[in-house]
Amino acid sequence: MRLREKISVRGPDGRVESWSVVRHFGESGWYVELSDTRGRSWSGIDAGVFDAFRDLRQVPEAEGCLFLVAGARLDCWPTRMQSQMGGGNLVAAHLGPWKMVTGNLLTFILPSFQHKAFFHDVFSPAPASKVGTVEEQDAYRKQWIDRATRAS
């Protein structure tokens, strides 16, 4: 099954455009295909949607485009379990340690809380203030892991 949807992308000129994205599972893994308003297209293939999306983002980002979706949020990436079992369709918001502890407690008390608060579809909308490039995402993740390992 092919899932087609529209996502918002801020172009180099600052205008927000609606681009088309298609995701589907095939023999080689997850395929993500992206088309802009000028007829250009990019594609990525990987074991998960998140990683296939990361692969195709690099060329448009080098041209100054910014993807306004959860998969481009600095603080979001799939957990290992989501990648292995869910195809990386969901990304988790990796918040500060105290917010994570509070979230875990609330999840224990109210199981439905976790999905609504911490997990987002890769292509769900995200504000420009929370997103970045693949390079910025990698740097944020490294800092987050370093901070988390120092705290333990």
UniProtKB/TrEMBL annotation:
It comes from the Bacteria. This is Uncharacterized protein. It comes from Actinocorallia aurantiaca. The lineage of its organism: Bacteria, Bacillati, Actinomycetota, Actinomycetes, Streptosporangiales.
